[in-house]
Design a protein that fits this description.
Rossmann fold, six-stranded parallel sheet, 18% strand, globular
């Protein structure tokens, strides 16, 4: 018997005409960071709001018709709704930072690609920090008016839901996303049909439809292959985030990258700048080049030289193990036909995904491909920039580590999305109603000192009480799900104290994050947790990757310790960490604990969210805290040491962690003045807010991306693409010429005029004679590289002195001269070098051509 064929019928809520504006409000994610609009939906039905997982579209479909009719007659509610509508319209029409800074030109168009986006708990297209950062990037791009559209994948199941079994072992559930009951809209053609794009892979065509999530003024487009016209294997491409094997990963990344560009083209958004948030979307560069080759009738090399100028790559990975690698067989299977259509061989493409000097058997590295097809590359904190340069230095042979062209833009958080309603009102009262629109202003944040100590403390205490209430409710649900006896459920309702020092630890349970560092000294930990005079309590949360047995074991160890020590009332683990749990924790904890093994935390942002809510950080000096920490705004574990012995590092840092807790954190929290206030603690809260909030937010971050990367990339791309790629073609031809003839370049002589002794600031004439071979003086830059010598007889923190061509001799030999001065005493080293030079070459190391002597 054949299966029935179903007709599809989408059913919409029947809203009274007076409530129809709720639809527009619900479908714009601006509500997710607007407390007044969230209060509007909560007001409709608080229980349903929680049951709908804070999804206003689902709420409108669940609420009873009688309730809707009553709300349509409720003048107070209608006034509230009208205010939300006006606020959204005013937000969309407001003159933005971007327009004030760069004018209203519509030429700049930025496309932001990411494998995941964490915007709201009701849209499960994220797994952790990378996705939440991407979501915050879109929210701040909207706030600032940056002309940006984003591209991702519409996962049918998203990331997993977590629960623990009786033994404390993580289990996974994969509920389906119901896109027709989410604040997402299917893009349609003028005749009403779903708008689709097609991507070729492995000899077949895969079709994807396009969903739009409106994030304030910023659209996010999500590609969905779960369509009847696709083969079952291809329907599963967008089944799960980070699910499946290597074959599934390459298929997802082809859809994201190549399909993403095609989706933007179908929607008539042709980007001048493409920003890759990690290397998952790097195949985007191929499609961008293919389109340019087709439109401009140019070569692959010319298209690469031009599109590269308008491409940015942000790496979040501090270790090579986090990079996607594809062997040539897999590349041939899925991209062979596509690559041949570009007029290049698979060997040509594979070279773009390998480091300088790697062989034919080495796999295709997505991060290296992203680096090689981008004009700009950055890490996500100052320290991570250093780590990334060290990690990738093998791709720049002969280039000093600090000159490797990987910069950094430190991550931030979208403050309005994470700050509690109580804290928001307090900030608005004392910082002014415009504090949200100028979050980066240090002057505005200095007004924190105006907040009375008792008012700040009472606000924070209310949030801690709400966290305790939230945790108790979650524990009751967890215990009921496990089928525990009523006595355990009763104890869960009394777990934690609303006025005790509360320390939070919540993040992805990767082993390097060392969630169990506290358990190295269980005796000291028990002593802290059993102190009735100065009670301390810990709230843990977080997920391990489904295939990460080590991460799951960490969760189990925490749960087992609490039970075995009979401390489940002072140390709890909240299951199913998501944005809801995260929000409750960062808004309510007193201290946020972070214990990664330096330097493996690229940035981290959860601690920034705590800051905005008045919480304090206790962390290893890694990621953002390495540049954010200063005395008086929180506590640092260690002084930035890095160890070769992991066991020794864990022992030393766990001991210091307990020392800080016992000698500084606990005493400071419980040291009260006669009015019952911890004045010194409150002073630290204020110092943290004043110092860190203006810097560690995504408004500052997106402004930095726009000013330092987006606009230069846009301008350079426009210059190379103008007049039928005139300068792009010239740059490609020059690049080919330089590479072909670089072996003919040699430094023949370096002369420095010195006396017996050289003194600080003394001028030393320098002359370098260079044989240029087939190149000209305009093709090269000759520099003197100088710096202090380290103990290993290598230059430390060197700098380059540009020399000037002063004479030309026979056989294309040129003389370059300059004057050298040393600013400090001691042993210095110097060497001459020759680099390629061209007005349109933004990175002199790009060509991997360098000559030293």
């Amino acid at each position: 018997m054949s299966a029935p064929t179903f007709q599809l019928l989408q059913v919409f809520p029947r809203l009274p005409e007076r409530l129809s504006p709720l639809v527009d409000v619900a479908y714009n994610l601006h509500w997710s960071w607007d407390h007044d609009t969230i209060a509007l939906f909560r007001r409709m039905d608080l229980n349903l709001w929680e049951e709908a997982h804070h999804n206003p579209v689902l709420l409108l479909g669940m609420i009873k018709q009688e309730r809707l009719e009553a709300l349509a007659r409720d003048d107070s509610f209608l006034s509230h709704m009208d205010r939300a509508v006006v606020n959204l319209q005013a937000y969309e029409m407001a003159r933005s930072w971007y327009h004030k800074t760069f004018g209203k030109s519509t030429q700049t168009k930025v496309a932001y690609f990411s494998m995941e986006f964490g915007l709201s708990e009701c849209i499960a297209t994220y797994s952790g920090g990378l996705g939440v950062l991407a979501g915050d990037h879109l929210k701040s791009a909207s706030d600032l008016g940056v002309p940006l559209a984003a591209v991702g994948l519409a996962y049918q199941q998203g990331y997993f839901r977590q629960y623990l079994n009786a033994d404390g072992w993580q289990q996974e559930l994969y509920p389906d996303n119901d896109f027709y009951n989410m604040p997402v809209t299917l893009e349609r053609t003028t005749d009403g049909a779903p708008r689709t794009i097609t991507v070729e892979m492995a000899g077949r065509k895969v079709v994807a439809q396009i969903w739009r999530v409106q994030v304030g003024r910023t659209p996010l487009y999500l590609l969905d292959t779960n369509l009847a016209q696709n083969a079952p294997d291809d329907r599963s491409i967008t089944q799960q985030l980070y699910g499946g094997d290597t074959q599934m990963r390459i298929r997802q990344e082809i859809v994201l990258g190549i399909g993403g560009i095609r989706a933007l083209t179908a929607l008539q958004f042709i980007p001048t700048v493409c920003h890759m948030n990690e290397g998952h979307s790097a195949f985007m560069a191929l499609e961008r080049m293919r389109m340019m080759m087709q439109e401009k009738q140019c070569s692959f090399a010319e298209a690469l030289a031009t599109t590269r100028a308008g491409t940015i790559f942000t790496t979040h990975t501090p270790v090579p193990a986090g990079i996607d690698l594809f062997d040539q067989r897999l590349m041939d299977t899925y991209l062979g036909e596509y690559v041949r259509s570009l007029g290049i061989t698979m060997a040509d493409l594979m070279r773009l995904g390998r480091a300088e000097g790697q062989g034919e058997r080495d796999p295709f590295n997505m991060a290296l491909f992203a680096i090689h097809t981008s004009a700009y590359c950055n890490g996500v904190s100052k320290l991570h920039g250093c780590v990334a340069r060290k990690m990738w230095m093998y791709d720049w042979p002969g280039v000093p580590e600090h000159e490797i062209p990987i910069s950094y833009v430190t991550n931030g958080v979208h403050v309005p999305s994470v700050v509690s309603r109580e804290m928001f009102d307090l900030l608005e009262r004392y910082l002014g109603s415009d504090w949200q629109t100028d979050i980066t202003s240090a002057e505005i944040w200095q007004n924190i000192h105006k907040i009375p100590d008792d008012e700040l403390w009472s606000t924070h205490e209310r949030r801690r009480e709400r966290l305790v209430s939230f945790a108790r409710a979650r524990l009751v649900q967890q215990y009921q799900r496990r089928g525990l006896p009523d006595s355990d459920i009763k104890r869960a309702k009394e777990t934690l104290l609303p006025d005790a020092l509360t320390i939070g630890f919540a993040r992805r349970y990767a082993t390097y994050k060392r969630a169990t560092l506290l358990l190295r000294d269980k005796e000291r930990l028990c002593k802290l947790l059993r102190n009735t005079q100065r009670p301390v309590q810990f709230i843990f949360a977080g997920k391990a990757h489904p295939h990460d047995t080590g991460g799951k074991q960490l969760i189990r160890e925490i749960v087992h310790f609490a039970h075995e020590a009979n401390l489940t009332h002072r140390l709890v683990f909240l299951e199913d960490y998501d944005l809801t749990v995260a929000r409750a924790m960062v808004q309510g904890v007193d201290v946020w604990l972070n214990t990664p093994r330096r330097p493996l935390e690229a940035s981290g942002t959860s601690g920034m969210k705590v800051v905005a809510n008045g919480g304090l950080n206790l962390s290893i000096l890694d990621g953002w805290w390495d540049e954010g920490y200063q005395r008086g705004v929180g506590w640092a574990i260690g002084r930035g040491e890095e160890y070769g012995d992991a066991e020794l590092q864990d022992r030393i840092e766990s001991e210091e962690l307990f020392d800080i807790l016992e000698r500084e954190v606990v005493p400071l929290f419980y040291e009260r003045t006669s009015d019952g206030l911890p004045r010194e603690w409150i002073a630290m809260m204020k110092a943290s807010l004043q110092t860190l909030c203006p810097c560690f937010n995504t408004s500052r971050m997106v402004q930095e991306y726009t000013t330092s990367l987006y606009m230069p990339a846009h301008e350079h791309f426009q210059q190379l693409a103008a007049k039928n790629l005139a300068r792009g073609r010239a740059l490609a031809a020059w690049t080919e010429q330089v590479r072909a003839h670089w072996q003919g370049v040699a430094i023949e002589q370096v002369e420095i005029t010195t006396s017996d002794k050289v003194y600080v600031k003394q001028s030393l004439p320098v002359s370098v004679t260079v044989r240029l071979g087939a190149l000209s003086c305009d093709d090269v830059a000759v520099e003197l590289y100088i710096g202090r010598m380290g103990a290993d007889r290598k230059i430390v923190g060197g700098h380059a002195l540009q020399l000037v061509c002063t004479a030309r001799r026979d056989n294309n030999v040129a003389v370059y001269e300059g004057t050298l001065t040393c600013d400090t005493s001691g042993l210095h080293g110097l060497a001459a070098r020759v680099l390629p030079q061209h007005p349109d070459l933004n990175d002199p190391f790009r060509l991997k051509c360098i000559c030293w002597k």
